[in-house]
Amino acid sequence: MRPLDVLKQYFGYSSFRPGQAEVIATIMEHRDCLAIMPTGAGKSLCFQIPGLLMSGLTLVISPLISLMKDQVDALLAQHIPAVFINSQCTLEESRQRFSEIRSGRVKLVYISPERLQNEFFTSFMQSMPIDMVVIDEAHCVSQWGHDFRPGYCAIRPWIEALPHRPVVAAFTATATQKVKEDMMNLLGLQDERVFIGGFDRPNLYFRVVRNTDRTSFILSYLARNKEDSGIIYAATRKEVDRLYKEIKARGFAAGRYHAGMTDGARKKVQEQFTYDKISVIVATNAFGMGIDKSNVRYVIHYQMPKNIESYYQEAGRAGRDGAPGECILLYNRRDIMIQKFLIENSVHSPEQQKKELQMLNAMIEYCETRHCLRQYILRYFGEKPSWDRCEHCGNCDQEVVQEDTTQIVRPICLCIDEVKGRFGMTMVCDILKGSMTARIRHYGFQRCTSFGMLSNYAAREIRDMIRQSLEDGFVQQSEGQYPVLSLTADGRDVLKGRKRAIQEIAIAAETEPAARPARKKKSVSESIDEEACRPLFEVLRSVRMDLAKKEHIPPFVIFSDATLWEMAASRPVSEEAMSRIKGVGEFKLHKYGRIFCQAVQDFQTTQR
User: Fold this and answer.
1) Which one of 76, 110, 215, 375 is most buried, counting C-beta atoms within 10 A?
2) Residue ranges of the HRDC domain (predicted)?
3) From CA 592, how far away is CA 604, in angstroms rounded?
4) pLDDT at 153 over 80
């Protein structure tokens, strides 16, 4: 059987997504690989399909117990022989699963990295024909990454101790150059091929909302999106608890998740969310790495995360089924102090602390940029998009006009020049505002020509002007814990009157977006009339929920939202027509096809 045949039979797709076929072909050639593919690109299929085709066992190392369970549930729902072995298994369950593995009835085994330190497990696996070891969320091996996990450091010596070396395949969604090098070296990849998929997620809409009443925004947004599943991330447990109470008090079906809760409470709320018993979960970053729920329609960050890697991975949990998703970051400059406090109190290595602060500065730039958000993210991960504006993010959607801002930029350049490029944004802002602070008096900066030149503006507005000057290339900022400002060649030209400063200014800044009309969401598909298809989609979603309850599995394991939308548009009433819907594989067709065809037929009868 060919990989394409497996894809159609088990997963219901007639063609691979970009990058999948090449990764699968490399693994089937028994060659190591590292695949860096964005969330939603279909990483799991890249190792599940070879795992089904290989004669021996595939061992999948995964960081989260909940992720293992979700993936194994989805595989078992399609009659793919898979098990997980972790601390939540009873002694009897463990015995049964080891027996199934020994008898050859299992193709894929999911474990945590810490399981490799178990002597019995190691001895058992050394007697089994392991054809492939898969490392999911492989960035966890690097201390330069955002989710370092010490247990990942045991993977390489464990593999090297096996009687026969298997193919090693490492997968992750995001990685800088340093993290990529660590993954290859620390995991011991040999003669590997590296695949870096495009990081762009066209179905996701990104926006940053600045200086708004965040709680009011959340409540207004939830009221407009009651039927959708979503995640709201907050930086601290205290903030999660407060926001959760606010949301629950307004009658929304919500849950909360953070490390201060018991294991049982966290497990319960995650299951409620996975099974669509609650529609929104408020959580710290303790929730979600590798979350397999495909129908998350929005991810809102109540506060700024500490780096782009964390943000993009968390935001990427929206729209994994390919249908539209919205990623919103609510930003206030007070978030910077919170994140700096967390870094300084959790990172003890000076070198690592410096690195974390550099990554934080990049996150701040994302929040404060007025240019294309999607382009900023892609450039951060080393891609060079061919366009300047994506026309599908909050910044690109804002109406802008070109304005001569020389009379604002020149005082900024003058101030930076007067302090000899030795100070950062706060000092420059205070001088321009004319604030008589102790530091200004200490240095005598009240005598600067630029002192008070922008006193008619609020401090926040001056800071935004400086940030805009940074983006437009008149000013530059050093790296490090205490970045300072200096002039570029263009900035000196503006200062000396040889150049004008022309900037793009947003006509209407989003200061109170919760009160504004809802943004028109990107359509599920250009060929689908979402408004016309929604009544049938809701019927099919209800059928899916009933089946999920009977079978005790998450609804998205039966069919994704994207598959239901295609059913609602195509209206198949025969199994042959149903087989042509993306996401309807051979097994699901036989198990669910007739039920959904009948639902379509009944709907059409009532419409006549």
Assistant:
1) 110
2) 530-608
3) 19
4) yes
pLDDT tens-place string over residues 284-325 = 987 865 566 888 999 999 999 989 988 998 898 898 888 889
- Encoding tokens for residue 174? 């995001």
Q: What is the CA 451 to chain-centroid distance, rounded?
A: 43
CA-closest candidate to residue 230, choices 335, 319, 331: 319
Show the tokens assigned to 342.
């967390």
The packing angle between helices 459-471 and 425-433, to 10°, is 130
191 close to 31: Cβ distance less than 8 angstroms: yes
Instruction: Please name the CATH architecture into which domain 3-196 falls.
Output: 3-Layer(aba) Sandwich (3.40)
Return the pLDDT at 342: 83
Band (148; pLDDT cuts 50, 70, 90): confident
Task: Dig out the tokens for 472 from the structure.
Answer: 């437009």
**Range list of β-strands (E), 7-90:** 33-36, 57-61, 82-84
Indicate the pLDDT class of residue 134, thresholds 50, 70 and 90: very high
- The structure's pTM equals 0.70
Instruction: Give the C-alpha separation, 488 to 599, whole Å.
Output: 65
CATH fold group of domain 204-389: Rossmann fold (3.40.50)
493 dihedral zone (left: phi>0; alpha: psi -120 to 50; beta): alpha
The CATH homologous superfamily to which domain 530-607 belongs is HRDC domain (1.10.150.80)
DSSP secondary structure string, 289-337? Answer: TT---TTEEEEEESS--S-HHHHHHHHTTTTTTSS-EEEEEEE-THHHH
- In angstroms, the CA 365 to CA 308 distance is 10
Q: What is the pLDDT of residues 191-214, one digit of tens each?
A: 999 998 778 888 999 999 988 899
Are both 3-196 and 204-389 of the same fold? yes
Q: If we measure between CA atoms, which residue out of 398, 418, 421, 406 comes closest to residue 468?
A: 406
Please give the pLDDT value at position 520. Answer: 44
- pLDDT digits 0-9 by tens, 562-577: 899 999 999 999 999 9
Q: Which residues of 506-531 are buried (b: 16+ CB within 10 A; e: fewer)?
A: eeeebeebbeeeeeeebebbeebebe
- Bridge partners of 403? 503
CATH number of 401-507: 1.10.10.10
- Non-local CB neighbours of 116 within 8 Å, separated by 6+ positions: 61, 122, 151, 154, 155, 158
- What average pLDDT does this structure show over 594-599? 96
